Amino acid sequence: MRPPLFSSVIAGVLVVLSHVPAQAQADKARIKRWESFSPEKKAELRARLKAFKSMSPEQQAEIKRRLKRFKSLSPTAQARLRQRYRAFNKLKPAERRRIKRYFRRYKNLGPEKQAKLRRLMGKVLKMSPRKRSRFLRNAVRWRSLSPSQRTRLKEIFKRRHR
Prior knowledge:
There is one protein chain. The protein has 9 helices and no strands. The mean pLDDT is 87. The chain is elongated and about 80 Å long. It has helices at residues 4-17, 21-36, 39-53, 57-71, 75-90, 93-108, 111-126, 129-144, 147-160. By secondary structure, it is mostly helical. Among the domains are: 92-126, no CATH class; 128-162, no CATH class.
């Protein structure tokens, strides 16, 4: 049960907002949604709002920009992103840090290198499971080579494919 003061505040807000019909409907829906949340969910949302307000104006602007971009996506794309977000958060912290590190490295690449990586990933994703598995095994082997061994293999590859 809500305290009487809280109920009267909501009622007062609804009366004021009822002068703007479209807005009043949206606000009523938001209030109804808020009231449907569990106390834990409300506490989480309050903490997130507090964290947001403690951010610098630049950080807040970045989050607002990202939210606007998210809202411009189709419902299907939004659902896919939410699913990926949930999957990401289920990972162990060390794995999340590793992925974030790779993503930062990717973001620091120039546009040409990013495009090249996207093309390569597209090719890898189109491979059959057998070919993809072989490719990934070879990639692991490649990373284990020393720089001089890689250089030597690149030269051999260039000679064979002229």
